[in-house]
Structures are given as C-alpha cells and as structure tokens.
Amino acid sequence: MWRRVASLSALISSTSNRCFLDQVAYRMSTCKLFSSEVKENPLTLKDLFITFVLGGPGSGKGTQCAKIVETFGYVHLSAGELLRREIASNSEYGSMILNTIKDGKIVPSEMTVRLIQKEMELSNNHKFLIDGFPRNEENRIAFETIIGADPDIVLFFNCPEEEMVKRVLNRNQGRVDDNIETIKKRLKVFKASNLLVVDYYSDKGKLFEIDATGTEEEIFERVRPVFAAFQV
Ligand SMILES: Nc1ncnc2c1ncn2[C@@H]1O[C@H](COP(=O)(O)OP(=O)(O)O)[C@@H](O)[C@H]1O
Ligand SMILES: Nc1ccn([C@H]2C[C@H](O)[C@@H](COP(=O)(O)OP(=O)(O)O)O2)c(=O)n1
Ligand SMILES: [Mg+2]
C-alpha cells in the first residue's frame, strides 16, 4: 500500500497526467485487489511473482508464454486476448476497443489494467505472465498505480521487423489487425512507445532480452534458464 501512495503522489505533481490521475484515484478508492477485504483470496501483493512479456507484434510472445505455462506453471494473461474477449462479449466499450486495435493504437490504460486486475483476482495462482503489457508509459504507470505492484522480471523478445511482419501475415487466426496496413502502424507505435518501457526496465536491472529468431524450441531454450533461476 505504501508503494501505491508514494507513486501516486509523484504522479500528482505532473499536471499533464491530472485527468488520467482523477480516473486512477477513483479506481484506487474502489480497488479491492489483494486488500484485506478480499477474504476468500489469501494472496497478498508480496506473494506475487509478476513477469511482463514484451516484444513487437509477431515476435512470439504468445507462443513462448504457452511453453512457460506448460513447463513452469504460470498463469498467462494476454492483454490483447483480454481486449478481444471484451469486444466479443458485446461490452459497451467493444467498438472503441475494436477501432483502436484496427488502427494499430493502444487502448486507454485503465481499461486494460481493469481487465488484468479482474483475472488476477480470480486466480489462485501467484505467478503471472502478463503478455503484451505494458505497451507504453501510460500502461506502465497505470499498472503500478492501480495494482500497486511492479514486475519482478521483464522478458523482451527481440525480433527483426521483417520476421515479425512475416509471422503476423502468416498467423491465420482471423485477427482484424493481422494485415499489412495495421502491422505497419503497430510497428511505428512499438518503436515510439514500447521501446521506452523496455529501456525503463533495463535501467532497473529487471530486463531479460531474448533473441527471438530461430525455431520456437530454440527460443524456448533461451527462455528456460530465466525461469529456472526464479523457482518461486
Ligand atoms: N520461432 C518462430 N518461428 C516461426 N514462426 C513462429 C515462431 N514463433 C511463433 N511463430 C508464429 O508466428 C506467429 C506470431 O506468434 P505469436 O506467438 O502470436 O506472437 P506475438 O504474441 O508476439 O504477436 C504465430 O502464427 C506463431 O505460430
Ligand atoms: N497493453 C495492450 C495490449 C494490447 N492492446 C491492443 C492493441 C494491440 O495492437 C492489440 C493486440 O495485442 P496483442 O498483444 O494481442 O498483439 P500481438 O500478440 O503482439 O500481435 O491489442 C492494447 O491496446 N494495449
Ligand atoms: Mg500475442
């Protein structure tokens, strides 16, 4: 709790963040995640082991997360998947989310963090892979403020652009954003916003950069030692 308050007061000094902060402050007042009120969930923030999984579109985040789940027993929360589920559920925010995704942009952070928070609350596991999040500084700060936690480690799948484009165009999952126009926009957003987050965690000593070229198995052999070292 003290960390939550400290980071919020630092943010309040920034007037450019004020509007976003009003929403965040409201959320915090209603936030029940891991609070003492949630009697049925014995987990506390300090019990959690949170991994953020970063990388450009098509870098193989989802594919490697499935292998980590299988081998190390984590819960996989894909931010994009949660947003796609929200669209499919005919939520009032569905069309806003759909248009944002089609346009290669990032959905307002409070929406995404709320969806992640809900899944974390429902889980009895304490080890989370949060895939495709945070994608920008606003995402990062919203998680820190609303959930009140920092990631323990951050994976970054580093993949050449042409390989990412090739993989996305071959993905064949019927996604509205798997087309050349959207992928070009997504790559611009990735370079402009996500790499700042990567640098932030690198400076904090939390980043594990993985060469995301080669076969799925070869890449997993680079991922495996990271999780083997954190048997939590
Ligand atoms: N190492 C790899 N080599 C070739 N194709 C891959 C590799 N890893 C994943 N793929 C394929 O590339 C596409 C994108 O992978 P995915 O895991 O969805 O990436 P991300 O979640 O980072 O967008 C999928 O169709 C997946 O099967
Ligand atoms: N933190 C996030 C994650 C995803 N989104 C939106 C915007 C992204 O382009 C889409 C798809 O994300 P997803 O992680 O599923 O995409 P990739 O697996 O990297 O191809 O969802 C978002 O707005 N904010
Ligand atoms: Mg994915």
Automatic annotation (TrEMBL):
GO biological-process terms attached to the record: 'de novo' pyrimidine nucleobase biosynthetic process; nucleoside monophosphate metabolic process; pyrimidine nucleotide biosynthetic process
Cofactor note: Binds 1 Mg(2+) ion per monomer.
UniProt feature coiled coil, ranges: none
Residues involved in CMP binding: 139
Record remark on domains: Consists of three domains, a large central CORE domain and two small peripheral domains, NMPbind and LID, which undergo movements during catalysis. The LID domain closes over the site of phosphoryl transfer upon ATP binding. Assembling and dissambling the active center during each catalytic cycle provides an effective means to prevent ATP hydrolysis.
Family assignment from sequence similarity: Belongs to the adenylate kinase family. UMP-CMP kinase subfamily.
Name of the featured protein: UMP-CMP kinase
Originating species: Trapa natans (Water chestnut)
